[in-house]
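Pasting as-is:
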Amino acid sequence: MGKVTGFLEIDRQTPKYQPASDRIRHFREFTLPMSDEEVGKQAARCMDCGIPYCHGPTGCPVHNQIPDWNDLVYAGDWETAIRNLHSTNNFPEFTGRICPAPCEEACTLNLEDAPVAIKTVEEAIADKAYKLGFVRPQPAATQSGKSVAVIGSGPAGLAAAQQLGRAGHQVHVYERESRPGGLLRYGIPDFKMEKHWIDRRVQQMQGEGVTFFCGVEIGKDKSLDELLATYDAVLYCGGAERPRDSGIPSEGLAGIHDAMPYLVQQNRRVGGEPIRSTAWAAEEIWAGGKHVVVVGGGDTASDCVGTAFRQGAVKVTQLDIRPQPPKQENKLTVWPYWATKMRTSSSQAEGANREFQVATLAFVGEDGQLTGVRCAEVDDKRQPIPGTEFVIRADLAFIAIGFAGPLEAGLVAEAGQRLSLRTDRRGNVAVDADEKSYATSLDKLYAAGDVRRGQSLVVWAIREGRQAARSIDLALTGTTTLPL
């Protein structure tokens, strides 16, 4: 696809960033877009390889037809490119910004450490589609007479709702927070994805007949029984919000927080919402003028780092119990799968001090306030090495080691106790052995996204929402035209 000799003639290029000294002064996106001509050149590097591993499931969970839309961008046919991209991905403007791009890891050119800039091209297609007016409501030609309730408006819920609405069903989306988007809106910082992208999609979906009910918590403001009695099907996309227990002794010190309440608070500030009108905000958290320690090495930890810098933190240290990965992976043993190698996020590049192969032993403090984090180097089995202990100064600490599953006191627990909703050993909602049906043990109730599969990527949530919508459409009408 693209230019036959493009990968030989054109070097890989990706968008540049605003300098760190500038971007930490605001919470807006800071990527400097490439010109259409340069994006076309990057698309031309797609080499028409015999087996395009960039497709799913190795490279892309939603099975984007990457070589096809690379060729269309190279030819300047943006309208057909977005139509092709939308055939597999409802929200490429989301994934083009926040997906870690396993497709690029699986690209054949990554054998030479110069994969096609797939994520860059995807984002460019999505943004160009909005600019040229190609993103419009696509209401169903006929109505099925069936109704579906979707609980949760994260990426899985949004994708399912859009697919079901286009299939002709009456779709009502129930969201606990005051605005749609789930953790797309409240968990991902604006400097990675501004929220007007969500607002545009919600507006499009409303034009397709989808109705949003915000500020409604199912199980509290409205019961699951009521939904099951009212609708022909109910899809639960509640996410995985329960943080993993770190087990780090803290003795009740002030200044220690799970990562998500901190990120949600800042997103609410940027969005002009009161931070205390949410289940996430027990107290106001602010990093300005403080020494900050972030425990964890993943994306959520990195988001805490970037947020702390923008709030004016004096110093930010990130602790990772894993050993520092190699700068380069062995392609012959890893490719086309995701490789463990040294990666530096834009937030970490803003000045974070990163400590690898370090265990967090305890939080220490004085007069009830955190003053430091006691650490130690660990061996290959992640056991502390005697004599290597040290203390890092900390006025504020965030625990960002992932999520264990649905909230313990949430809808899943309530439905499990009262309605015998089946869960798996991790506490996630269990579905039929044929997982593509997404049907739970309760009649008419389906589940998709992180609440079913556990903590995962936005792109996987979109995939699950699309598949669940197809299953529901098939169950309600006996046939379906929605794609797998």
